[in-house]
Amino acid sequence: MTTTNGVDVEQLGQAIEAITDEPAVGRFAFRATTDWTDALQCVTTIDDFDQAGEQITTRTFEIEGDEPEQILGERTAPNAVELLLAALGSCLSVGYAAHAAAMGIELEELRFELEGDIDLRGFLGIADDVRAGYNAVTCTAYVETDASADELAELRDRVETTSPVMDVIANAVPLETDVVTESRGVRA
Amino acid sequence: MTTTNGVDVEQLGQAIEAITDEPAVGRFAFRATTDWTDALQCVTTIDDFDQAGEQITTRTFEIEGDEPEQILGERTAPNAVELLLAALGSCLSVGYAAHAAAMGIELEELRFELEGDIDLRGFLGIADDVRAGYNAVTCTAYVETDASADELAELRDRVETTSPVMDVIANAVPLETDVVTESRGVRA
To answer: Deepest of A127, A150, B12, B181, by most Cβ within 10 A of its Cβ?
Structure first.
């Protein structure tokens, strides 16, 4: 087994080959269930996903959410827009580690500093001309490696053009919602 | 103190008034630091944010990231695109609880089922015409409440037009990146 950055390069090549041969193998549906607990607190449960239409059940993860006191919460957990930054950092971390391995670049250290600016007048419905989400997101990658500047530039380009969460943030994604009313058990 | 859905409605009104009077109070910068640990694993640390340009330090939260075995990870944690769904669910949970409180709607139960479809040929750089991120995201809200259908429709509309994470997913956000090369301690 040849690993670079802890990534099994042979296995990575086989995965690319398998998905190239049979694109369905690369089709995933990820899922999460968020339960409101009280006030601005909630917990999201993640425990399965689909690959090529087949459901795969895994161990269960729980991610809590809350707002800081400044936004009427109790700061028992990060808030939604902080979780979004965690998603971006996680995505870039996977991207750098995997693409560097494929390119034969060894990483010594890798860290991302992420920031997003938001104007709460959007969320609070105070001003129609203020967007609800982040006005801008910035991310600085700190990389310790022996790779040349050219190799690093190529790595950055590969990561940034193929990062799922960068794509979702920087571009529009079709988002469909629905609301289902559930009646109380005592009635009906 | 009057609370609806655990939200202090008076405090919410005061916050809206304060931010309407002085918009700077509603300006936040959220931050996260993601450290690559090994292979496709990382940990994101969240411990401070800015409000009106003032840094506020809070307790520290850590969010782990990994890929499932099917994407060459060890499934020690959710992956980045699952964290993104958790961010969306957390955001909608806060939105429903807070806007319902402001409207005087009591929620009994509230749950969100989220799903995102992705084609890994984008991430792996196999096909240029396949986007890296989610092709589509769906979210169904299950709401148990005594509110009328009209009130619930109004609540849904308020939440969906003011949800920060819905906005980030459904629309484009300016995203700027930078890469800084750090030299090893032993050299220099």
So the answer is: B12
